[in-house]
Amino acid sequence: MRTEIARNLTAHGERSVPAPIKIPPVGEVIDLDASENYFNRELSQLQFNYRVLKQALDTTHPLINRLIFCCIFSSNMDEFFEIRVAGLRQQMKYGRETLGADGLMPEQALSEISRVAHEYIDEQYDILNHVLIPEMEKEGIHFVRRREWTPEQAEWVRKYFEEEILPVVSPIGLDPSHPFPRLVNKSLNFIVELDGKDAFGRETGMAIVPAPRSLPRLVRLPDEICNGGENLVFLSSMIHAHADELFPGMEVKGCYQFRLTRNADLELEDDLEDLASALRGELLSRRFGDGVRLEVADNCPQELVQFLLTEFGLGQRDLYQVNGPVNLTRLMAVTSLVDRPDLTYSSFSPSIPRQIRSKETIFDAIRKRPILLHHPFQNFSPVVDLLRQAAKDPQVLAIRQTLYRTGANSEIVEALADAARRGKEVTAVVELRARFSEAENLELASRLQEAGVIVVYGVVGYKTHAKMILIVRREEGRLRRYVHLGTGNYHAVNARLYTDYSFMTCDESIGDDVNKLFQQLTGMGKALKIKKLFHAPFTLHKRLLSLIEREASLGEKGRIIIKINALTEIRLIKALYQASQAGVQVDLIVRGICSLRPGVPGLSENIRVRSIVGRFLEHTRAYYFGNDDKPEVYCSSADCMERNLLSRVETAFPIEDPELIARVREDLDVYLADNCQSWMLQPDGGYIQNQPAEGEERIASQLVLLERLTGKS
């Protein structure tokens, strides 16, 4: 059993031997372009996925949530293969290999990814089989295996198979008239060894059984045939037990699970005449892209494994033989099948600031002073209320909003539709290419158009990732603009799971800036002069560089704190290196990918990088610059990645109210003080989880913020 993993993992997955660090002689000029100064982004992303997996071993999380962390790791790895690994394979397939700042070519990166991913996935199944399942057994939650079924349970499973599974399963024998079927991305399938001849005298020897996605992967056994507790059976166990009923008269010699992960990235040309139509066509092909990973049960015979690899055009490094279900993400169904609130996070009620709890309208509250909400600790409902009130308010003339991800049944979308039906001028900039939300966004765009909303799809070639609402209201004979800007999506469910900032203001300059940004998105023309906002792809990157350079000019008096989800943009990393060399103290709170190498003497000795992983997905993006004791704070929709800063529509907005500046700094200080949910990036690329010293108070940043903002610990 390998559940106690060494903490000092390097960015390349090595466990004990750190990557060599070159310490230059005193006075030697450091080459900022040298590849050893940067970590590979894909391997860094794998590291983040591993930190998520480690939460499954953290007993401060409730048991069922630890299982969910194990499932989230699977979901993250699925997307990693679908997008990142698929992208590297595409580079090689079409001869478009590019050398990253870390010096790795795609072939080298894929080899390292395979080695590290195999290690992590082996560890995941070890945790599942030897830690989580035994602990759930102790709590009366049983995953009942075939060998453990009582006669009553076996009979119930037989009836369930005949009534629920057999009518919808389509076994496919493999012979010249039945070629290997096209299998849907990430679907559960079985390869079956057969002996004998069928009714037509065919002797195929092999068949494929796709498990319909409509079937649940976990089924709860009735309490009356069990001896207490919560008893669950895997769909795969049911199919294994009754595979012979799918092939009457033939002998099933073996039945083995497998799952193919395909390239799921969408490639759209920049000169499309109709983006929506093109996207609908691409979505159909996503389910059947090139194979990038094969997961197979570890008891599958080698000849069958090789047959599948050959069929999908994959090699040994793309093969993952696993000791358990091949589709662990679907284990999240436990939360709906098992009623054990004592084994999940306790609920909490997000707070609403006193400023907007009165009987006044939200417009009255915003006019008094700007509002800053920190989700999920503070409620997302004021954002929804802003639109609801705007829809019904006869003084509101127009509403404009960007929509990246909103959810299938969005109150936001309903409010926009209501406003349009009431005769207001409503414009929605819907980003159709929000990854894995494309189909949902096509549907909501149609719904909005039916209600009379003007729907545009932004700018082809530049994803609209900015989070903006603009409301134009007539007040006392003049027009006033109300604005909402956010670091996260307009998605009420995610607002309970992700940390994000929401900012509401009627500042004239910010309102004018947001109006100009909407003009750029919906119309045509030169970039307009913006007063307070930074916006990509035009000014955000340049302004961040200039702010870092300003702190560097202050030397040891400089101070930088940045909280983001990813840091890969090389010019920003170089600017941070130079700030460190000038003596600036730099703290980076980077949830996921980080290509910067911290703590290297002469290069980055004044830079510290930490990652916070806990109950909520850290998603706030905030930039703090000391500015010689006149601090400047910005919140943003953008991460420090080349695509966000140079190839997307993004915003960074200033927080100018002194109390709100102090509040953001207090939030950042809580993250910096975290000594149990934070992981420190080491110079060799390893992450070490912080632990409170003996006698030191335990500080879990998310719990501190939860208690501070809701009164709930």
TrEMBL record:
Instruction: Please tell me where Mg(2+) binds in this chain.
Output: R405, R435
Alphabetic keyword roster: ATP-binding, Kinase, Magnesium, Metal-binding, Nucleotide-binding, Phosphoprotein, Transferase
Tell me the cofactors it needs: Mg(2+)
Instruction: Return the EC number.
Output: 2.7.4.1
Which Gene Ontology molecular function entries are recorded, alphabetically?
polyphosphate kinase activity
What general EC class does the enzyme of this chain belong to?
A: transferase
Q: Which residues bind ATP?
A: N76, Y498, R591, H619
Keyword Transferase on this protein? yes
Which PANTHER family does the entry link to? POLYPHOSPHATE KINASE
Q: Which family does it belong to?
A: Belongs to the polyphosphate kinase 1 (PPK1) family.
Query: What's the name of the protein?
Result: Polyphosphate kinase
Origin species: Marinobacter aromaticivorans
Lineage here is: Bacteria, Pseudomonadati, Pseudomonadota, Gammaproteobacteria, Pseudomonadales
